[in-house]
Amino acid sequence: MKILVLRFSSIGDIVLTTPVVRAIRQQVPGAEVHFCTKPAYRGLVESNPYIKKGHYLTGSLRELAAELRAERFDYIVDLHNNLRTRLLKLQLNVPSSSFDKLNFQKWLLVRFKINRLPHLHIVDRYLAAAAPLGVRNDGKGLDYFIPEKDEVDLATTLPAHFQRGYVAFAIGAQHATKRLPVERIIELCGQLGRPVVLLGGPEDESTGHVVELAFEKEAATAVPPTAQIPDSPYYFPETPRSQDPKTLIYNACGKFNLHQSASLVRQAQLVVSHDTGLMHIAAAFKKEIFSVWGNTVPAFGMYPYRTEFRVLEVEGLACRPCSKIGFGQCPQGHFKCMRDIRFDLDLPPARDGR
């Protein structure tokens, strides 16, 4: 049976679809699983051994539909359920089932703070879309596969102090209202009291540089004129309130590709992350996660899946959630959802070894 799974974006969402892909491949007799997404996520598809073939939206939707039609699929599992995937299904004209996005319930929560969302993780809702195929949740959690060439050798990559154990801190996120202000990142790193590897893309490199400088002895609170200040309405340089001398910073932002960053997450003692893709990658490796939430909320169903985690958030804030995705700046101007989070980490004493 030839089955097509649709999910065009993004990193975290595609990682969250992996239990569905695995379940179909292992539970449907003779299943051949294909996955359709954007070319930016090719690496996630090609590294997954449960996926026979990837298809990518490189041109027009009509061209993609022609490519998919030639495959003669028996069934489509739509885990995106937007206009584009609906048009594709219409053109392919084969049996299908779709993920329920619960947009009305999300709108109620964002607009009126009325929570009618089910107490169900999005993975279980994805699996419900594949239920007509007879698949069930195997309880194994998320998958993430790192190609051997992208495994990071800590002994040759990180400074000596980090090779005995570190915290991975994913400081990036697509939207500013899902990221801590820089001075709060510094404060949180200080409370960790152990080596911290900052992870993110090239767009996060300057933020990581400011954090790194904050923990250097000669420049704990000053940013030299040569440093690039992040272009963000939430940058407020000030003295870190809880700077522990045991905290060491290695700014890995922009230095590693996604698979290599995942390798650093896999080898970390624990992970701190905003509501972003690396948080779900950490969950795939069953890491202990401190999950930081700003304008979005765990009630949307995208908290770390089947791993130990703690949520850091401001509960009871009247304006939260203000969006199901995020904004470039706080609509209210105060950004209390991030600025007022209490970092009650209650960590065990730092120790060598992972």
From TrEMBL:
Keywords in alphabetical order: Glycosyltransferase, Transferase
Pfam families in the record: Glyco_transf_9 (PF01075)
Presence of the UniProt keyword Transferase in the record: yes
SUPFAM superfamilies: UDP-Glycosyltransferase/glycogen phosphorylase (SSF53756)
InterPro entries linked: Glyco_trans_9, LPS_LOS_Heptosyltrfase
Domain of life: Bacteria
PANTHER family xrefs: LIPOPOLYSACCHARIDE 1,2-N-ACETYLGLUCOSAMINETRANSFERASE-RELATED (PTHR30160:SF1), TETRAACYLDISACCHARIDE 4'-KINASE-RELATED (PTHR30160)
The protein's name in its UniProt record: Glycosyltransferase family 9 protein
